[in-house]
């Protein structure tokens, strides 16, 4: 697997200045959430830090917050309009950051598999 570049940025947690190393996609998602919520990224990080379990690192807590935020916003209609349900097609696009691979459960010809 290819190495992912982490980007270090300074943030404020309350009055304390610290830094976080996150992937560019995670920083972009955090910026999008801040824009949608009409606040600064520092405010989101402060909120996440205040509510995270102490055994969880701040960067891990921020990643989980971002996933939870967007999962709560996801709807069946939104998934349909985004073309979800075609994972093999998604994995074979130029914008896919993951290395090309084959998997026996994912086929270009198959539709969704029944469990």
Estimated radius of gyration: 17 Å
Total discrete domains: 2
Overall geometry: globular
Flag low-confidence runs.
Answer: 108-115
Mean pLDDT: 82
Number of helices: 5
Q: Give the strand content.
A: 5-15%
- Summing up helix and strand content along with how strands pair, one would put the structural category as alpha+beta
The SSE order reads: EEHHHHH
Largest sheet: 2 strands, antiparallel
Number of E strands: 2
What brief labels describe this structure?
14% strand; 2 domains; 5 helices; 115 residues; alpha+beta; globular; disordered C terminus
Describe the overall structure:
This protein is α+β, with helices and mostly antiparallel strands. Helix content is 45%, strand content 14%. A two-stranded antiparallel sheet has the order 1-2. The longest helix is centred in the middle third of the chain and has 16 residues, at 58-73. The protein is globular, with a radius of gyration of 17 Å. The protein starts with 5 loop residues before the first strand and ends in a 24-residue tail after the last helix.
